[in-house]
Amino acid sequence: MAATQGFKPLPQSNVPAAPSHQASSAQRAPQHLRTPSNRKTIYDRNLNRTRTAELSRASFAYLFSEMVSYAQKRVTGIQDLERRLNEQGYPLGLRLLPLILYREPARTSVRPNRILPLLQFVHGPLWRHLFGRTADAIEHSSSADNEYMISDNEPLVNQYISVPKEMNQLNCAAYVAGVIEGVCDGCGLKAAVSAHNGGTEMWPGKTVFLIRFEEEVVEREGLLEGKK
Q1: Model's pTM, two decimal places?
Q2: In terms of C-beta density within 10 A (0-12 exposed, 13-18 middle, 19 or more buried), how is residue 81 classed?
Q3: Cα 109 to Cα 75: distance, rounded to the nearest angstrom
Q4: Which residue has the higher pLDDT, 227 or 132?
């Protein structure tokens, strides 16, 4: 796929206390259930406590390969497999959006409601949260107003996946495309996102994420531009 032809680069409520009889019943919980000694759960942790934590690549490679194997069951072809990977990533995007915004500095923790700020959010904070760096490029189609591209020269999700020759068109970064789609929908800017092989001589594993916004999103963007 000639991924970059026809595209131009872009700048980079209080909850009432539980009744006492419920509390006493909780204290009589079965003894075989393991609970932390301090009685705290994962929901009691500070959301900023693990903002700089990293998952080992070995753990990630194992978990992601298992996800691909699970998605591969009972599929009818490459497109069906990529669709299932996309669907697995979509809920993660919806949940990551408020978490990343919470962790951002107060002056920048605003939910994007325009196309360009959204793309810059995906290119920067989202990519840094997922992969520890920004994406490599943002581009806008010169022939379709609703099409944008975000490029990653070395997507981490493809580095530990061995694709057979008969499935050489498969791009497991469809999972990341689902994450991006979830973020877009979470911001109210509905879009369809797909991952495409865009390898070059310098970057043979390059992946291009094609983002197609719905027409009403583009129309609203035009109206907001006209008000300036």
Answers
A1: 0.77
A2: buried
A3: 40
A4: 132
